[in-house]
Design goal:
By secondary structure, this protein is α+β, with helices and mostly antiparallel strands. The chain has one domain: Immunoglobulin-like. Helix content is about 15%, strand content about 35%. The protein has two helices and seven strands; from the N terminus they run H-E-E-H-E-E-E-E-E. The strands form two sheets. Strands 4-3-6-7 form a four-stranded antiparallel sheet. Strands 1-2-5 form a three-stranded antiparallel sheet, with no helix packed on it. The longest helix has 20 residues.
């Protein structure tokens, strides 16, 4: 029995090693597909608001397109962060032009929702890095520099 199982086990190991060496390589006549992100997010504009006694607020306008199979909201799928001088900015939900209720509105697959989020800035001179990641994964959906 050992004489039969040993060659089979060795052949299996050899075949596995050979096939694993080909993983990720494109073979002739083979097409490789990349994973489609769960959403596409585009910054369509931004504006800086100033109230005399408060810190300046950057309002960023987004277009959120759902690529999932079911309806989801921006807030369910994404975690947005604005960094100024390497430090995360606080969200300003009450900023003029911000649309916080739209963050939680479901969007059907393939549909696009326009929304705006306000971020409290430390100053009006340093650039702001906008980063949007998937909540449940490590995928970065958007990383872009915005000037206040």
């Amino acid at each position: 029995m050992r004489r039969i199982l040993l060659p089979i086990a060795l052949a299996f190991c050899l075949l596995t090693a050979l096939l694993s060496g080909c993983a990720g390589e494109k073979m002739p006549n083979e097409t490789m597909t990349e994973a489609v992100p769960n959403a596409v997010i585009v910054i369509t504009g931004s504006q800086t608001e100033s109230v005399s006694s408060k810190s300046p607020v950057l309002v960023v306008h987004y277009e959120f397109t759902n690529n999932m199979a079911a309806p989801v909201s921006f807030a369910y799928l994404c975690k947005d962060t604005a960094y100024q001088d390497g430090v995360a900015c606080e969200v300003a939900a009450d900023a003029l032009g911000a649309t916080p209720k739209l963050l939680y509105r479901d969007v059907k697959p393939g549909a696009t929702q326009k929304l705006s989020i306000g971020y409290k800035l430390k100053n009006k001179t340093s650039v702001v890095e906008i980063e949007i990641k998937e909540w449940l994964g490590d995928g970065v959906l958007l990383r872009q520099i915005v000037t206040p």
